[in-house]
Design a protein that fits this description.
With 267 residues, this protein is α+β, with helices and mostly antiparallel strands. It contains 10 helices and 10 strands. The protein has 2 domains: 117 residues; 139 residues, no CATH class. A hairpin with a 7-residue loop joins strand 5 and strand 6. It is globular, with a radius of gyration of 21 Å. The mean pLDDT is 92.
C-alpha cells in the first residue's frame, strides 16, 4: 500500500493515546498552541509568532503508524519536499506539503526541522528586526545599533536554516561559526535582503574569513572556487577540493553570482 493510500486510511480521530503523543510531539518541537481538530488532523501553531500552522495525524496500525505531518508554510513545505523526498504524500486542503513516517522519531525530527525552517525563512527574521528597531532614527548611532540588531537576527536565522552546522566542514560548535553575508550588509538594497536567509551562509571561521575577503567563492553547483593567491598552507587547511556547499537554493545562486562578480571569479 502506498503512503498516499495509507494517508487516506488514517484515523478520522486520533486514538486518545496517540493524540497525547501527537500533542507532546508538537509541544516539544515548537508548535505549542493547539488549534483544533479538522478532518482527522490535529492542528497546531507556534506560540512565538512563527508563521504557518502544522497538522498531525496517526495511522491505522496498532502502534499508530504511519505518522503524518502537514505543513502550511509554503517555503517550509518546499524545503522539506527536497529534504524528505521519499516521505512526501499528497497534502490535505489548505496545506502546501505533507509527509508520512514509519516512526515517531522520524515525525519528531521533521517537526523540529519544520519549526526551525519557519523561524529562519522570510519574513519572520525581518519582522522581528523591524519590530525591535521601529523606534530608532537615522543617526550614525542608530545605524550602528540597527546593524548590530540585524546581524543578531540574521545569525539566528542561519543557525536555524543550516541546522547549526557549517555545510562545508560539519563543524557545529557555535563559537566557531560565523554568519556570512553573501552580499555584504552595506551593499544590500533593502532590509529584506539584509535579513534574507538566502543571502547568507553559516561558515566555520576560517572559511568565513576567506569568503568575506573574496579569496574563495562558490559556483552554482556549490563547488569551491579559490584565488591563485592562496598559500599552500591555507589550501591545506581549507581543503577546497573536498568542500561542497549544499544544499543550495536558486536564491542562493543568484546572490553567489553577485559575490563572484564582485571579487572577479570566473566559474
Amino acid at each position: 500500500m502506498s503512503l498516499n493510500e495509507r494517508l487516506s486510511r488514517r484515523h478520522t480521530s486520533a486514538h486518545p493515546i496517540f493524540r497525547v503523543e501527537l500533542d507532546q510531539a508538537a509541544f516539544n518541537h515548537g508548535f505549542r498552541k493547539a488549534n483544533g481538530i479538522a478532518d482527522g488532523w490535529l492542528w497546531f501553531k507556534s506560540d512565538e509568532g512563527v508563521p504557518g500552522e502544522v497538522a498531525l495525524a496517526s495511522g491505522v496500525n496498532s502502534d499508530g503508524s504511519p505518522w503524518f505531518l502537514a505543513v502550511e508554510h509554503a517555503g517550509v513545505a518546499a524545503k522539506l519536499a527536497v529534504e524528505l523526498r521519499d516521505a512526501a504524500v499528497s497534502p490535505p486542503a489548505h496545506f502546501k506539503g505533507a509527509f508520512a513516517f514509519e516512526t515517531q522519531a522520524e515525525l519528531r525530527s521533521a517537526l523540529s526541522r519544520a519549526f526551525h525552517l519557519a523561524r529562519s525563512l522570510p519574513t519572520f527574521p525581518l519582522a522581528q528586526y523591524q519590530a525591535e528597531v521601529a523606534g530608532l532614527g537615522s543617526t550614525e548611532v542608530d545605524r550602528i545599533v540597527k546593524e548590530r540588531v540585524g546581524q543578531g537576527y540574521f545569525r539566528r536565522a542561519l543557525l536555524d536554516y543550516w541546522g547549526g552546522r557549517c555545510p562545508l566542514t560539519g563543524i557545529g560548535d557555535e563559537a566557531l561559526l560565523r554568519a556570512s553575508h553573501i552580499v555584504a550588509w552595506a551593499d544590500c538594497r533593502s532590509d529584506d535582503e539584509r535579513l534574507d536567509v538566502y543571502n547568507g551562509l553559516l561558515l566555520a571561521a576560517h572559511w568565513d574569513a576567506a569568503f568575506d575577503r573574496g579569496l574563495v567563492s562558490f559556483d552554482d553547483q556549490g563547488r569551491a572556487l579559490v584565488k591563485p593567491t592562496l598559500s599552500e598552507a591555507a589550501l591545506a587547511i581549507l581543503a577546497p577540493e573536498r568542500a561542497r556547499l549544499l544544499p543550495l537554493d536558486e536564491a542562493h545562486r543568484r546572490q553567489l553570482a553577485r559575490h563572484r562578480e564582485r571579487f572577479g571569479f570566473i566559474s
